[in-house]
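ARCHIVE CARD
Drawer: 12
Card no.: 0347
Subject: one protein chain, sequence and derived structure
Cross-reference: see card 0346
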Amino acid sequence: MQRLRVRFTRGEEIKYLSHLDMTRLWERVFTRAGVDIAFSEGFNPHPRLSLAAPLVVGMTAESELMDIFVEGTITPHWFMSAVKNQLPVGVDILDTCLVSTLLPSLQAQVKQADYCVKVGKIGGPDDVEKAIEAILDSDTFPWSHERDTGKREYDLRPLIDDIRLVSDDGAVCTLEMRLRCDSTGSGRPEQVVKALGFTAYPFPISRTRLLLGS
């Protein structure tokens, strides 16, 4: 048995697929490509395929990660050649490598996520740099937002590792942010934008990288 780590993109064409839909998409792709996916044991076996971290519906991604366990022996080159011919528009594989089957699960290795966010200046803070500095200099940042299950209150500050203003043309700001993304909590870029004082919903949002730790 082998374990392959796949790095891929998610474009505009599939940004409204849910996490479950994306998993099913990959299962169909691998079946059509002739990849012999390994299955879990037990009464309800399922393909041993795992995406690193759920992506919010409506976001694109430049460097997502996925682990897949396969039976037998294949090369990353064969895998990419076979799979690329079956990919739908909006998905592209960037690279594939073999990783140890003894490593922790991919989800357990994800620690941070980088985002690029564009947001309209109308209704935003007069000085974006000062708004960013105020959050980064704070020890805590009490926050709440409404979810389907009701109002959620938490400290937003520990979920933010960094925020940087990339450009500001007077109408649109481009922000880069590094947010926590692990089993203890995940930062949401749209919530960070609201915390900075912007009233417009950011568009577009792209997750540019997932960072792994030991």
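Annotation on reverse: Residues 19-33 form the longest helix (15 residues). The mean pLDDT is 93.
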